[in-house]
Request: fold
Amino acid sequence: MYENELSATILDIAFEIHKTLGPGLFESVYESILEFELTESAGLFVERQKPMEVNWRDTILDLGFRCDLIVERSVIIEVKSVEKTQPVHYKQLLTYLRLANVKLGLLINFNEVLLKDGIRRVANGL
Reply:
């Protein structure tokens, strides 16, 4: 499956970033470097801080929702650098998946000693 291949590439890059920089930086730092590596090193199409519009009664509304990263229009990445992810972070990503009609999302919290403890795959049942 294409999304699984993309997620493997994304996670390989995320692990390399975490190995090099470690935890403790701002979310924007990890997001910027992840975008750079995905585009420059992996050659993938990445949209950063893409508005997530809401269709309400046949009207498209921009309500300020922004996706951290969308890779190849197929995987949404929500980047965090927090002490502990909360259920609202999972729900936020699931909402983005539904709004964008995308199947797979990755919630990545770079503020973990072991990055594997900060990764959560989220699937949209469509």
Residues 2-123 form one domain. The radius of gyration is 14 Å.
